[in-house]
Amino acid sequence: YTSAITGYVIYEYLGGNRCMREVARITDLTATSYLIPAIAAKGYTMAVATVERDQPITHQHKQPEITGIAFNECNYNTEIQWTPYIGWNSGDASYAVYVAVGAGASYSLIEENIADTSFVWKNTPTRLPLSIMVQAVNKFDISAKSNTQPVSKTFDFPKRPEYIHLSGLVYDGNNAALDFTIDPSTDLNKFEIQRTAEDGSIASVFTFSNKDISAYTDTPGVGIFQYHVVAKNSCDSVATMSGALSNMQLQMKQNGNTWLLQWNNITPPEIVYTLLRLQPQPQGLLSSTSLQSYTDNVPSMVNEPSLKFCYQVEGLTAENYSGKTTLCANYEPVITMPDAIDPLSTAVNPQTGRARNQFGPVINVNPQTYSYHLVILNRNGAVVADINKKTTDDPLHQTWNGRTKNGNPAAGEVYTYALSVQFEGGSTQTKNGSVTVMYSN
Protein backbone atom coordinates (compact mmCIF):
# COMPACT_ATOMS: atom_id res chain seq x y z
CA TYR A 1 0.00 0.00 0.00
CA THR A 2 1.14 3.59 -0.64
CA SER A 3 0.19 4.77 2.85
CA ALA A 4 0.49 3.31 6.34
CA ILE A 5 -2.11 0.84 7.66
CA THR A 6 -4.15 2.28 10.52
CA GLY A 7 -6.45 -0.69 11.27
CA TYR A 8 -9.10 -3.10 9.96
CA VAL A 9 -12.77 -2.70 9.06
CA ILE A 10 -15.43 -5.44 9.27
CA TYR A 11 -18.56 -5.13 7.15
CA GLU A 12 -21.83 -7.05 7.26
CA TYR A 13 -22.98 -8.13 3.80
CA LEU A 14 -26.59 -7.10 3.25
CA GLY A 15 -27.19 -8.51 -0.22
CA GLY A 16 -27.40 -6.98 -3.63
CA ASN A 17 -24.45 -5.42 -5.48
CA ARG A 18 -21.78 -4.28 -2.98
CA CYS A 19 -24.43 -3.58 -0.35
CA MET A 20 -22.57 -3.64 3.00
CA ARG A 21 -22.75 -2.03 6.43
CA GLU A 22 -19.76 -1.32 8.67
CA VAL A 23 -20.07 -3.11 11.99
CA ALA A 24 -16.58 -2.66 13.52
CA ARG A 25 -13.35 -0.69 13.01
CA ILE A 26 -10.30 -2.16 14.72
CA THR A 27 -7.26 -0.01 15.42
CA ASP A 28 -5.12 -2.70 17.03
CA LEU A 29 -2.81 -3.75 14.22
CA THR A 30 -1.80 -6.93 16.08
CA ALA A 31 -5.39 -8.20 16.36
CA THR A 32 -6.29 -11.43 14.55
CA SER A 33 -9.90 -11.91 15.73
CA TYR A 34 -12.99 -9.96 16.67
CA LEU A 35 -16.20 -11.09 18.42
CA ILE A 36 -19.43 -9.87 16.83
CA PRO A 37 -22.43 -10.13 19.18
CA ALA A 38 -24.93 -11.10 16.45
CA ILE A 39 -24.60 -13.43 13.44
CA ALA A 40 -25.32 -11.87 10.06
CA ALA A 41 -27.57 -13.88 7.83
CA LYS A 42 -25.63 -13.11 4.64
CA GLY A 43 -22.01 -13.13 5.81
CA TYR A 44 -19.14 -10.69 6.26
CA THR A 45 -16.27 -9.07 4.44
CA MET A 46 -13.22 -7.08 5.59
CA ALA A 47 -11.03 -4.16 4.51
CA VAL A 48 -7.69 -2.66 5.55
CA ALA A 49 -7.94 0.92 6.86
CA THR A 50 -5.19 3.30 5.65
CA VAL A 51 -4.68 7.05 5.93
CA GLU A 52 -6.04 7.52 2.43
CA ARG A 53 -8.90 4.97 2.23
CA ASP A 54 -10.18 1.50 3.13
CA GLN A 55 -8.76 -1.21 0.89
CA PRO A 56 -10.95 -4.39 0.56
CA ILE A 57 -8.93 -7.55 1.29
CA THR A 58 -11.59 -10.26 1.26
CA HIS A 59 -14.59 -11.27 -0.77
CA GLN A 60 -18.11 -11.97 0.46
CA HIS A 61 -18.38 -15.13 2.62
CA LYS A 62 -21.69 -16.94 2.38
CA GLN A 63 -22.46 -20.26 4.04
CA PRO A 64 -24.09 -23.13 2.10
CA GLU A 65 -27.86 -23.40 2.32
CA ILE A 66 -29.83 -26.67 2.05
CA THR A 67 -32.21 -26.25 -0.88
CA GLY A 68 -33.72 -29.70 -1.24
CA ILE A 69 -34.31 -32.97 0.61
CA ALA A 70 -36.02 -35.61 -1.54
CA PHE A 71 -36.85 -39.10 -0.24
CA ASN A 72 -37.12 -42.14 -2.55
CA GLU A 73 -39.50 -44.58 -0.89
CA CYS A 74 -38.52 -47.45 -3.23
CA ASN A 75 -34.92 -47.62 -2.04
CA TYR A 76 -35.09 -45.61 1.22
CA ASN A 77 -32.50 -43.14 -0.11
CA THR A 78 -32.56 -39.36 0.34
CA GLU A 79 -30.95 -36.82 -1.99
CA ILE A 80 -29.73 -33.73 -0.15
CA GLN A 81 -28.90 -30.59 -2.17
CA TRP A 82 -27.33 -27.30 -1.08
CA THR A 83 -25.88 -24.06 -2.46
CA PRO A 84 -22.10 -23.73 -2.77
CA TYR A 85 -20.07 -21.95 -0.15
CA ILE A 86 -19.01 -18.47 -1.31
CA GLY A 87 -15.85 -16.84 -0.01
CA TRP A 88 -12.93 -19.09 -0.86
CA ASN A 89 -11.30 -19.58 -4.21
CA SER A 90 -13.21 -21.83 -6.56
CA GLY A 91 -12.43 -25.48 -5.84
CA ASP A 92 -11.10 -24.84 -2.32
CA ALA A 93 -14.29 -26.08 -0.62
CA SER A 94 -15.39 -29.62 0.08
CA TYR A 95 -18.50 -30.58 2.03
CA ALA A 96 -19.51 -32.89 4.86
CA VAL A 97 -23.01 -34.04 5.81
CA TYR A 98 -24.04 -34.51 9.44
CA VAL A 99 -27.29 -36.02 10.68
CA ALA A 100 -28.98 -36.30 14.05
CA VAL A 101 -31.54 -39.14 14.12
CA GLY A 102 -34.16 -38.88 16.84
CA ALA A 103 -35.20 -36.08 19.14
CA GLY A 104 -32.28 -34.71 21.14
CA ALA A 105 -29.71 -36.85 19.33
CA SER A 106 -26.24 -35.47 18.66
CA TYR A 107 -24.95 -35.06 15.12
CA SER A 108 -23.01 -37.85 13.47
CA LEU A 109 -20.88 -37.61 10.35
CA ILE A 110 -22.52 -39.41 7.41
CA GLU A 111 -20.13 -38.48 4.60
CA GLU A 112 -17.21 -36.09 4.08
CA ASN A 113 -14.89 -34.88 1.29
CA ILE A 114 -17.86 -34.29 -1.00
CA ALA A 115 -16.82 -32.24 -4.03
CA ASP A 116 -20.34 -31.69 -5.39
CA THR A 117 -23.25 -29.79 -3.81
CA SER A 118 -25.46 -32.87 -3.45
CA PHE A 119 -25.31 -36.20 -1.66
CA VAL A 120 -27.44 -39.37 -1.64
CA TRP A 121 -27.96 -40.65 1.89
CA LYS A 122 -28.63 -44.37 1.59
CA ASN A 123 -30.89 -46.31 3.94
CA THR A 124 -32.57 -43.28 5.44
CA PRO A 125 -34.63 -44.14 8.54
CA THR A 126 -38.34 -43.35 8.48
CA ARG A 127 -40.79 -42.22 11.14
CA LEU A 128 -37.98 -40.67 13.17
CA PRO A 129 -37.17 -36.95 13.49
CA LEU A 130 -34.07 -36.08 11.47
CA SER A 131 -31.89 -32.98 11.59
CA ILE A 132 -29.57 -32.55 8.60
CA MET A 133 -26.63 -30.17 8.43
CA VAL A 134 -24.01 -29.49 5.72
CA GLN A 135 -20.54 -28.17 6.52
CA ALA A 136 -18.17 -26.48 4.08
CA VAL A 137 -14.48 -27.07 4.77
CA ASN A 138 -11.56 -25.23 3.20
CA LYS A 139 -9.35 -28.03 1.89
CA PHE A 140 -6.22 -25.93 2.40
CA ASP A 141 -7.05 -24.56 5.86
CA ILE A 142 -8.49 -27.05 8.35
CA SER A 143 -9.70 -24.22 10.60
CA ALA A 144 -11.86 -22.62 7.91
CA LYS A 145 -15.36 -24.10 8.17
CA SER A 146 -18.92 -22.95 7.71
CA ASN A 147 -22.12 -24.82 8.63
CA THR A 148 -25.60 -24.61 7.17
CA GLN A 149 -28.53 -23.96 9.39
CA PRO A 150 -29.86 -27.47 10.25
CA VAL A 151 -33.02 -28.60 8.46
CA SER A 152 -35.46 -30.87 10.31
CA LYS A 153 -37.43 -33.56 8.54
CA THR A 154 -39.48 -36.68 9.25
CA PHE A 155 -40.26 -39.16 6.48
CA ASP A 156 -43.60 -40.80 7.21
CA PHE A 157 -43.22 -44.06 5.31
CA PRO A 158 -43.60 -47.66 6.53
CA LYS A 159 -40.72 -48.53 8.79
CA ARG A 160 -38.54 -51.26 7.38
CA PRO A 161 -36.95 -53.92 9.62
CA GLU A 162 -33.81 -52.79 11.39
CA TYR A 163 -32.63 -56.39 11.12
CA ILE A 164 -33.44 -59.82 9.75
CA HIS A 165 -31.32 -62.53 11.35
CA LEU A 166 -30.97 -65.81 9.46
CA SER A 167 -29.53 -67.70 12.40
CA GLY A 168 -29.59 -71.38 11.47
CA LEU A 169 -29.84 -73.81 8.57
CA VAL A 170 -29.97 -77.59 9.01
CA TYR A 171 -29.67 -79.69 5.87
CA ASP A 172 -30.21 -83.46 5.84
CA GLY A 173 -29.38 -84.19 2.22
CA ASN A 174 -32.80 -83.25 0.90
CA ASN A 175 -34.60 -80.81 3.21
CA ALA A 176 -33.23 -77.48 4.41
CA ALA A 177 -34.71 -76.17 7.69
CA LEU A 178 -34.17 -72.43 8.25
CA ASP A 179 -34.47 -70.42 11.48
CA PHE A 180 -34.69 -66.62 11.32
CA THR A 181 -35.94 -63.56 13.21
CA ILE A 182 -37.54 -60.42 11.74
CA ASP A 183 -37.49 -57.09 13.58
CA PRO A 184 -41.00 -56.96 15.12
CA SER A 185 -41.14 -53.13 14.96
CA THR A 186 -41.31 -53.08 11.15
CA ASP A 187 -44.42 -51.81 9.34
CA LEU A 188 -43.75 -53.88 6.24
CA ASN A 189 -45.81 -56.99 5.57
CA LYS A 190 -44.18 -58.64 2.57
CA PHE A 191 -41.34 -61.08 3.18
CA GLU A 192 -39.61 -63.61 0.99
CA ILE A 193 -37.13 -66.45 1.30
CA GLN A 194 -34.74 -66.55 -1.63
CA ARG A 195 -32.60 -69.51 -2.65
CA THR A 196 -29.51 -69.01 -4.79
CA ALA A 197 -28.14 -72.03 -6.62
CA GLU A 198 -24.47 -72.67 -7.30
CA ASP A 199 -24.88 -71.31 -10.84
CA GLY A 200 -26.10 -67.96 -9.46
CA SER A 201 -29.79 -68.37 -10.32
CA ILE A 202 -32.19 -67.02 -7.68
CA ALA A 203 -35.56 -68.52 -6.83
CA SER A 204 -38.25 -67.20 -4.50
CA VAL A 205 -39.21 -70.28 -2.51
CA PHE A 206 -41.61 -68.80 0.07
CA THR A 207 -43.54 -65.53 0.36
CA PHE A 208 -45.35 -64.59 3.56
CA SER A 209 -46.86 -61.55 5.29
CA ASN A 210 -46.63 -62.48 8.98
CA LYS A 211 -43.44 -61.03 10.51
CA ASP A 212 -43.76 -63.44 13.45
CA ILE A 213 -42.93 -66.46 11.26
CA SER A 214 -39.46 -67.64 12.24
CA ALA A 215 -38.93 -71.02 10.53
CA TYR A 216 -39.31 -72.60 7.13
CA THR A 217 -38.40 -75.95 5.56
CA ASP A 218 -37.35 -75.95 1.93
CA THR A 219 -36.88 -79.00 -0.29
CA PRO A 220 -34.04 -78.02 -2.62
CA GLY A 221 -32.81 -81.54 -3.29
CA VAL A 222 -29.16 -82.40 -3.73
CA GLY A 223 -26.71 -79.56 -4.36
CA ILE A 224 -25.32 -76.40 -2.80
CA PHE A 225 -27.72 -73.55 -2.09
CA GLN A 226 -27.50 -70.17 -0.39
CA TYR A 227 -30.44 -68.57 1.41
CA HIS A 228 -31.53 -65.00 2.22
CA VAL A 229 -34.63 -63.68 3.97
CA VAL A 230 -35.75 -60.31 2.58
CA ALA A 231 -38.36 -57.69 3.39
CA LYS A 232 -39.97 -55.83 0.48
CA ASN A 233 -41.72 -52.44 0.36
CA SER A 234 -44.68 -51.23 -1.66
CA CYS A 235 -42.46 -50.82 -4.74
CA ASP A 236 -41.56 -54.53 -4.48
CA SER A 237 -37.98 -53.47 -3.80
CA VAL A 238 -35.81 -55.12 -1.16
CA ALA A 239 -35.91 -52.95 1.94
CA THR A 240 -33.86 -55.20 4.24
CA MET A 241 -31.92 -58.39 3.53
CA SER A 242 -30.57 -60.93 5.98
CA GLY A 243 -27.07 -62.31 5.88
CA ALA A 244 -26.45 -65.38 3.74
CA LEU A 245 -26.34 -68.99 4.86
CA SER A 246 -25.38 -71.93 2.69
CA ASN A 247 -26.00 -75.61 3.13
CA MET A 248 -22.93 -77.80 2.95
CA GLN A 249 -22.86 -80.70 0.53
CA LEU A 250 -21.43 -83.58 2.56
CA GLN A 251 -20.20 -86.73 0.83
CA MET A 252 -19.25 -90.05 2.43
CA LYS A 253 -17.05 -92.49 0.52
CA GLN A 254 -15.99 -95.79 2.05
CA ASN A 255 -12.46 -96.95 1.36
CA GLY A 256 -11.98 -100.30 3.10
CA ASN A 257 -11.88 -99.56 6.82
CA THR A 258 -12.17 -95.77 6.44
CA TRP A 259 -14.75 -93.14 5.59
CA LEU A 260 -13.54 -90.28 3.40
CA LEU A 261 -15.68 -87.22 4.23
CA GLN A 262 -15.74 -84.19 1.96
CA TRP A 263 -17.88 -81.05 1.99
CA ASN A 264 -18.17 -77.70 0.25
CA ASN A 265 -20.46 -74.68 0.15
CA ILE A 266 -20.74 -71.11 -1.18
CA THR A 267 -20.65 -69.24 2.13
CA PRO A 268 -17.86 -66.60 2.55
CA PRO A 269 -14.39 -67.97 3.36
CA GLU A 270 -14.27 -66.88 7.01
CA ILE A 271 -16.53 -69.79 7.95
CA VAL A 272 -15.33 -72.22 10.63
CA TYR A 273 -16.10 -75.88 9.96
CA THR A 274 -16.80 -78.40 12.71
CA LEU A 275 -17.11 -82.10 11.89
CA LEU A 276 -18.86 -84.50 14.28
CA ARG A 277 -19.41 -88.24 14.19
CA LEU A 278 -22.95 -88.68 15.51
CA GLN A 279 -22.93 -92.48 15.51
CA PRO A 280 -21.43 -94.85 16.40
CA GLN A 281 -19.23 -93.58 19.25
CA PRO A 282 -20.09 -89.85 18.98
CA GLN A 283 -16.99 -87.70 18.75
CA GLY A 284 -15.83 -84.28 17.54
CA LEU A 285 -13.38 -84.90 14.70
CA LEU A 286 -12.34 -81.54 13.28
CA SER A 287 -12.59 -77.76 13.69
CA SER A 288 -10.93 -75.73 10.96
CA THR A 289 -11.31 -72.67 8.73
CA SER A 290 -9.55 -74.25 5.76
CA LEU A 291 -9.89 -78.05 5.70
CA GLN A 292 -12.93 -79.42 3.88
CA SER A 293 -12.13 -83.14 4.02
CA TYR A 294 -11.40 -85.72 6.69
CA THR A 295 -10.63 -89.45 6.83
CA ASP A 296 -12.26 -91.35 9.70
CA ASN A 297 -10.76 -94.76 10.54
CA VAL A 298 -13.41 -97.23 11.64
CA PRO A 299 -11.78 -100.55 12.75
CA SER A 300 -12.49 -99.86 16.42
CA MET A 301 -16.19 -99.36 15.64
CA VAL A 302 -17.00 -102.35 13.45
CA ASN A 303 -18.10 -104.40 16.44
CA GLU A 304 -20.88 -101.91 17.22
CA PRO A 305 -24.41 -103.37 17.10
CA SER A 306 -25.27 -101.07 14.16
CA LEU A 307 -23.35 -100.52 10.94
CA LYS A 308 -25.02 -97.16 10.33
CA PHE A 309 -22.58 -94.22 10.42
CA CYS A 310 -23.83 -90.63 10.71
CA TYR A 311 -21.77 -87.45 10.41
CA GLN A 312 -22.59 -83.77 10.76
CA VAL A 313 -20.61 -80.82 9.44
CA GLU A 314 -21.42 -77.36 10.82
CA GLY A 315 -20.30 -74.04 9.38
CA LEU A 316 -20.20 -71.01 11.69
CA THR A 317 -19.78 -67.54 10.15
CA ALA A 318 -18.25 -64.49 11.80
CA GLU A 319 -21.80 -63.27 12.57
CA ASN A 320 -22.56 -66.57 14.36
CA TYR A 321 -24.85 -67.72 11.57
CA SER A 322 -24.83 -71.49 11.68
CA GLY A 323 -25.37 -73.98 8.88
CA LYS A 324 -25.52 -77.72 9.57
CA THR A 325 -25.61 -80.71 7.24
CA THR A 326 -26.17 -84.29 8.38
CA LEU A 327 -25.56 -87.43 6.32
CA CYS A 328 -25.83 -91.12 7.21
CA ALA A 329 -24.73 -94.25 5.35
CA ASN A 330 -24.39 -97.93 6.12
CA TYR A 331 -20.86 -99.24 6.40
CA GLU A 332 -20.11 -101.89 3.81
CA PRO A 333 -18.19 -104.59 5.71
CA VAL A 334 -14.99 -106.02 4.25
CA ILE A 335 -15.28 -109.74 3.42
CA THR A 336 -12.16 -111.87 3.06
CA MET A 337 -12.26 -115.44 1.69
CA PRO A 338 -9.27 -117.85 1.84
CA ASP A 339 -8.12 -119.29 -1.46
CA ALA A 340 -7.08 -122.73 -0.11
CA ILE A 341 -7.95 -125.26 2.61
CA ASP A 342 -6.06 -128.21 4.13
CA PRO A 343 -8.60 -130.52 5.82
CA LEU A 344 -5.85 -132.17 7.93
CA SER A 345 -4.01 -129.03 9.15
CA THR A 346 -4.82 -126.93 12.21
CA ALA A 347 -2.00 -124.44 11.54
CA VAL A 348 -3.09 -120.81 11.29
CA ASN A 349 -3.66 -119.36 7.85
CA PRO A 350 -2.05 -115.87 7.89
CA GLN A 351 -4.55 -114.72 5.27
CA THR A 352 -7.52 -115.15 7.58
CA GLY A 353 -6.15 -115.72 11.07
CA ARG A 354 -8.01 -119.05 11.26
CA ALA A 355 -6.93 -122.69 11.10
CA ARG A 356 -6.18 -124.00 7.63
CA ASN A 357 -8.92 -126.60 7.94
CA GLN A 358 -11.62 -123.85 8.14
CA PHE A 359 -13.11 -122.27 5.05
CA GLY A 360 -15.62 -119.46 5.48
CA PRO A 361 -15.93 -115.69 5.24
CA VAL A 362 -13.88 -113.46 7.54
CA ILE A 363 -15.94 -110.28 8.02
CA ASN A 364 -14.64 -107.28 9.95
CA VAL A 365 -17.86 -106.51 11.84
CA ASN A 366 -19.73 -107.84 14.83
CA PRO A 367 -20.87 -111.41 13.97
CA GLN A 368 -24.23 -110.65 15.51
CA THR A 369 -24.87 -108.05 12.78
CA TYR A 370 -24.92 -110.51 9.88
CA SER A 371 -26.03 -113.96 8.70
CA TYR A 372 -24.87 -115.83 5.62
CA HIS A 373 -25.47 -118.79 3.32
CA LEU A 374 -22.38 -120.60 1.97
CA VAL A 375 -22.55 -123.38 -0.66
CA ILE A 376 -19.52 -125.47 -1.78
CA LEU A 377 -19.62 -127.28 -5.15
CA ASN A 378 -17.18 -129.81 -6.64
CA ARG A 379 -16.06 -129.62 -10.24
CA ASN A 380 -19.04 -131.72 -11.30
CA GLY A 381 -21.46 -129.22 -9.76
CA ALA A 382 -22.49 -131.47 -6.87
CA VAL A 383 -23.10 -129.76 -3.50
CA VAL A 384 -20.35 -130.72 -1.07
CA ALA A 385 -21.43 -128.46 1.81
CA ASP A 386 -24.41 -126.19 2.51
CA ILE A 387 -23.89 -123.90 5.51
CA ASN A 388 -26.27 -121.37 7.06
CA LYS A 389 -25.11 -118.97 9.76
CA LYS A 390 -27.65 -117.09 11.83
CA THR A 391 -26.85 -113.75 13.49
CA THR A 392 -26.62 -115.54 16.86
CA ASP A 393 -24.17 -118.21 15.61
CA ASP A 394 -20.41 -118.11 16.05
CA PRO A 395 -18.88 -117.91 12.54
CA LEU A 396 -16.00 -120.18 13.68
CA HIS A 397 -18.54 -122.99 14.02
CA GLN A 398 -20.16 -122.27 10.65
CA THR A 399 -17.33 -123.00 8.21
CA TRP A 400 -16.49 -125.82 5.79
CA ASN A 401 -13.92 -128.23 7.22
CA GLY A 402 -12.75 -129.52 3.84
CA ARG A 403 -14.68 -132.82 4.11
CA THR A 404 -17.48 -134.41 2.14
CA LYS A 405 -20.92 -135.06 3.58
CA ASN A 406 -19.83 -138.56 4.76
CA GLY A 407 -16.98 -137.03 6.79
CA ASN A 408 -14.10 -138.08 4.53
CA PRO A 409 -11.47 -135.54 3.45
CA ALA A 410 -12.39 -134.03 0.12
CA ALA A 411 -10.33 -134.85 -2.93
CA GLY A 412 -7.50 -132.46 -3.70
CA GLU A 413 -8.96 -130.30 -6.45
CA VAL A 414 -10.52 -126.88 -7.09
CA TYR A 415 -14.01 -126.27 -5.68
CA THR A 416 -16.34 -123.36 -6.32
CA TYR A 417 -18.39 -121.50 -3.75
CA ALA A 418 -21.33 -119.10 -3.63
CA LEU A 419 -21.67 -116.78 -0.61
CA SER A 420 -24.57 -114.48 0.29
CA VAL A 421 -24.29 -112.29 3.40
CA GLN A 422 -27.28 -110.46 4.87
CA PHE A 423 -26.38 -107.52 7.13
CA GLU A 424 -28.44 -105.75 9.73
CA GLY A 425 -30.36 -102.98 8.04
CA GLY A 426 -31.16 -105.07 4.96
CA SER A 427 -27.99 -104.70 2.87
CA THR A 428 -26.60 -107.81 1.14
CA GLN A 429 -23.20 -108.75 -0.24
CA THR A 430 -22.53 -111.74 -2.49
CA LYS A 431 -19.29 -113.39 -3.46
CA ASN A 432 -18.52 -116.18 -5.92
CA GLY A 433 -15.11 -117.75 -6.27
CA SER A 434 -12.98 -120.84 -5.95
CA VAL A 435 -11.03 -122.65 -3.22
CA THR A 436 -8.39 -125.32 -3.66
CA VAL A 437 -8.25 -128.37 -1.37
CA MET A 438 -4.57 -129.13 -0.92
CA TYR A 439 -2.69 -131.35 1.53
CA SER A 440 0.68 -130.67 3.10
CA ASN A 441 3.43 -133.28 2.62
Topology, element by element:
Elements: E1 5-13, E2 20-26, E3 44-50, E4 54-56, E5 66-72, E6 77-82, E7 93-101, E8 108-114, E9 118-121, E10 130-138, E11 145-147, E12 151-153, E13 164-171, E14 176-182, E15 190-197, E16 202-208, E17 215-218, E18 225-232, E19 238-241, E20 245-246, E21 249-255, E22 258-264, E23 272-279, E24 283-288, E25 293-297, E26 308-316, E27 322-330, E28 335-336, E29 340-341, E30 348-349, E31 354-355, E32 362-363, E33 370-377, E34 383-389, E35 414-423, E36 428-437
Parallel strand pairs: 13-27, 29-36
Antiparallel strand pairs: 1-2, 1-3, 3-4, 5-6, 6-9, 7-8, 7-10, 10-11, 10-12, 13-14, 14-17, 15-16, 15-18, 18-19, 18-20, 21-22, 22-25, 23-24, 23-26, 26-27, 28-32, 30-31, 33-34, 33-35, 35-36
How would you portray this structure in words?
- The protein is mainly beta.
- It contains no helices and 36 strands.
- Strand 15 (190-197) and strand 16 (202-208) form a beta hairpin.
